[in-house]
Amino acid sequence: MIESLTMPATAGINPILFPKPAPGNQGTVTVLCGPNGGGKSFILKTLVSLLNDDDEDNTLPARGWVLHKTGEAANFYRARHHATTMRSAGILGRTRAGSTIKETQPEKYARLIIFGALLASLPQLPKFDRHRWMVEPIYRQRQIGAVGAVDEEQGYWFGMGAPSFVSTFNSAVQGRLGLRVVKDGLELVLSQGEGASSPYPNWSDGQKSLFTILAVTEMLRPEVFVFDEIENFLHPALVSVLVQHLKQHCRQTILSTHHPHLVFGTIIDTVYYVERSERPGDLPQRLLKYHSQPAVQRRISLLSDDRSKLASLYRLFDVKDAALLATGAMVLDALDLEVHAALSGHFECGAVGAKSSVYVDRQSEQIGQLIRSFSPTPNVVLDWGAGIGRSLAELAKRVSVVPTDHHSWILYDPDPANEAPLARLAAAHDTVSVVHDRSSLTGIEAGVFLLTNVLHVLDPSAWCEAIEDGWNAIRHSGRGIILITEIYPLLAAESRAIPIPPNWVVGLFRELGFKATIRHFSSHGTESYCVAVSQPPSFLYSRDAILNIVVAHWEALKTQLIGEYEGMGHKLSMGDHQRLLNSAFGLARITSCLRAIESSTDRSSGKSVPTAI
């Protein structure tokens, strides 16, 4: 691998240091950016020339370039004339296959390896020998014929045994890679669904470039991969796919670019800005030979943070782009205002009503099915923490659920602000009533004590109240159940909410003496769950004992969230960011509640409690 490159007539960062991956980790990616003519491509070409030099010290004294490598040999690959190479990477002619191809012909040799790996995964060639394929031209021609007769309408699709780059490519382009036998040999094809397919010559340049780089790097596995402007032909999402692939299959990747997506990418390890440090002086009297010319004056800067990256990339714009930059500034100002408004209210917990759709949402439908499957008695559903009545309103969309099953609903929510919406909902149904205060729940017996998407917003004291009220509601019934439904992780981060895993709920209720089981189901693209709590104990612990048990479980959940938060690492997707916010807000909420309980306990025991100033 490469350690550093020292250059002549270079100010700023010199030598350039290339990060090396730690044992067992993914490879590293170094990016050179800057204006045209600054020297990015020249540095890459010189780097490859030095890598290819047999001189033990890898030096070119006349030019002043010095390359330092680790002790092992550097197996490298640099695509030359990539636009030409990629246009033929998916075609293997019979004549070409029948000729002798050596490792000193990197593009042709790579194509041979790629097709050999692809053909080995075809069921039509069960005894395919990859070694013979690489060394015997006659064997290659025979295997091409063994795939099938010449038929441009017959496709052969690569399956489970294909190299991993095939699935990466299929996912990136939303298609299926295969091949067909044509008159001149083999030709890759891409199925695009609904009967549409494209032979390799008809692929877009982006598809060809993506396939070529994915295939070459996986099959040749170069230790050092050098590429000039790898983003050409590709939109940003495919650039990300490609860079992640390079980190998995190459120990070191060195790229040049003008693209902000690569400069600001979170999976890029090091970024250098390369520029000419002075303008051309007097014209030369004689045109010197290349190796006799003085070195061009350059400056190289390390862009170590977003501010330096933004400042450097800004210089690549022209004054004529002022309108673009001004528009960008206006968009940024508008976005700041929007983000500020979102931060002021988006993360707040709030009761949510039924959706406007005529269809029952997935979670509510599951609740209805569970109620019917348990056949609880009496036929009373006590919806504790009903919010503004979403569960009942959703289930009422299916006429058979509420009237036919003859369930009476009692709605209760600890927040007085939700009384009016609940009262309006009760007025629309003869079998629905509203309880306005917790004391009125005394003596109510229910077949179902429902806790839907409410536990994650309760503090430990409210948890104790819900447990006590649930036990009181079902303890006299032989078939009463407590149904707890939650989404985990939460669909959106809430500042006063805690993402509650199902095993945590089960463990808590089992410790209190209940029987508890879990049922999982998919909802809103995430995992929902239902915990069915039954067989209540003949007696319930005191409030203080219940609180101690709840707090102990909260402490365990706090430890779990700390582990998830610390283990997040670099974020690669919006889903990762969402889970990070869930963990961060949940951790903050648990810590705040536990401190409040600790402070309250200290006061009641007479301990000195610090007073906030």
TrEMBL record:
Pfam families: AAA_21. One of its GO terms (molecular function) is ATP binding. SMART domains: AAA (SM00382). Coiled coil: none annotated. InterPro entries: AAA+_ATPase, ATPase_AAA_core, Bact_Antivir_Def_Nuclease, P-loop_NTPase, SAM-dependent_MTases_sf. Residues 26-278 form the AAA+ ATPase domain. Gene3D superfamilies: P-loop containing nucleotide triphosphate hydrolases, Vaccinia Virus protein VP39. It comes from the Bacteria. This is AAA family ATPase. The lineage of its organism: Bacteria, Pseudomonadati, Pseudomonadota, Alphaproteobacteria, Sphingomonadales.
